[in-house]
Design goal:
Number of domains: 2
CATH topology of the largest domain: Aminopeptidase
Distance between the termini: 50 Å
CATH class of the largest domain: Alpha Beta
Helix content: 25-40%
Number of strands: 14
CATH superfamily of the largest domain: Zn peptidases
CATH architecture of the largest domain: 3-Layer(aba) Sandwich
Largest sheet: 5 strands, mixed
Structural class: alpha+beta
Number of helices: 12
Length: 360
């Protein structure tokens, strides 16, 4: 069975549909929790605001403007977002930190048109090779990023964080096998959870230029480029990282080529204090909803709107993840188990109860 449709189907206690776990299913848990409360108890002891938008996958280009325009109506004591996951089956988790994101593209231009390599090879620059050389120099095979100043401000995990990730049933070999790899890569002096959550990264997301079709075409391309994402951690300044990246690229483009550097996205890493009253209420809610203590984890991905809520709106944000890591978001057979769906509803209802008491 393969389901890529927006229409859902149910099989063996699992709902399959595009958006089942990312993010319609998780959103629905909070709506149904409020509905169940009103049907069984009556008035909800909190003022709830539901903010639903459909542009998250393209960077939410209008969301910040909308929130600022309606700032007074949307101001809240706490924001609850469900766009993360549990650590694994029967392992509920509260995410207290997200990496930031700086996304860049650079485009190298040589001649004013594609050229024949037999006629012009040896006397004109090849943008493909310029881009390849710059990309190769950015990051070593050991996983170390070579851009000077890139690691400025990066701090190791605190002692309590080490204790938390050491609780996790983390198995490098199993994860590598699941991904079809002989082993995990990266900075081997750091354990995998640290590389995944506490260390910044640089990844080339795409490269283009020249001829990539079937067969041969002896072309020297006029232009070539690369798209690069950098996941940042607390202590790194996204604007500063973007400046360092641009300087690194420009210093390495030869005089016989031109370069354009484009900045697409800059958002800082976020850490939510685990002793915040809303986080403490969330721990109790997960304990009641899932029947076990939630793990405290970080997330290697980025949710830029969280940084906006925290830094601009001054609203603490709590990340409730009810899905599973293998729920296939954005892919065929995206899914959400009904068991986790129902536990998510219960957890959301318990949070309303516990947080309303804590907030007075």
């Amino acid at each position: 069975m393969e389901n890529t449709s927006l229409r859902s189907c149910r099989k063996d206690g699992v709902v399959y549909a595009r958006g089942a776990t990312d993010d319609k299913g998780q959103l629905l848990t909070h709506l149904l929790a409020a509905e169940a409360w009103m049907k069984t108890i009556g008035d909800i002891p909190l003022n709830l605001i539901y903010l639903i938008e459909g542009e998250e996958e393209i960077g939410s280009p209008h969301l910040e403007e909308f929130i600022l325009e309606h700032r007074e109506k949307l101001q809240a004591d706490v924001v609850v977002i469900s766009d993360t996951s549990q650590f694994g089956p029967e392992m509920p988790a509260l995410c207290y930190a997200l990496r930031g994101l700086t996304y860049m593209e650079f485009i190298v231009t040589g001649a004013n048109q594609d050229l024949h390599s037999g006629m012009f090879g040896g006397i004109v620059p090849n943008p493909n090779q310029v881009v390849a050389a710059i990309v190769a120099e950015m990051k070593g095979l050991d996983g170390r990023i070579r851009i000077p100043g890139f690691y400025d401000g990066v701090k190791p995990p605190e002692g309590w964080e080490v204790a938390e990730y050491e609780k996790l049933p983390w198995n490098d070999s199993d994860l590598a096998a699941q991904l079809g790899l002989p082993g995990l890569s990266g900075e081997k002096e750091y354990p995998a959870p640290v590389r995944r959550w506490y260390r910044p990264t640089l990844d080339v997301n795409g490269m283009y230029g020249g001829y990539a079709g079937k067969g041969a075409k002896t072309v020297i391309p006029s232009i070539a480029g690369a798209k690069v994402s950098m996941r940042l951690v607390s202590g790194q300044n996204p604007e500063r990282v973007a400046e360092l990246f641009e300087a690194f690229v420009r210093e390495r483009v030869p005089d016989d080529c031109k370069v354009e550097v484009i900045r697409y996205q800059n958002s800082p890493a976020i850490i939510i204090p685990v002793d915040h009253p809303a986080m403490q209420a969330a721990k109790v809610a997960f304990r009641n909803g899932f029947g076990k203590e939630p793990l405290l984890i970080r997330e290697g991905a980025s949710i830029p709107i969280v940084a906006f809520f925290v830094d601009t709106m001054k609203m603490p944000s709590i990340l409730f993840g009810f899905g599973l890591p293998d729920d296939n978001p954005h892919a065929p057979n995206e899914k959400f188990t009904l068991a986790d769906f129902h536990r998510g509803i219960a957890t959301s209802a318990h949070f309303m109860d516990v947080y309303s008491e804590a907030a007075g």
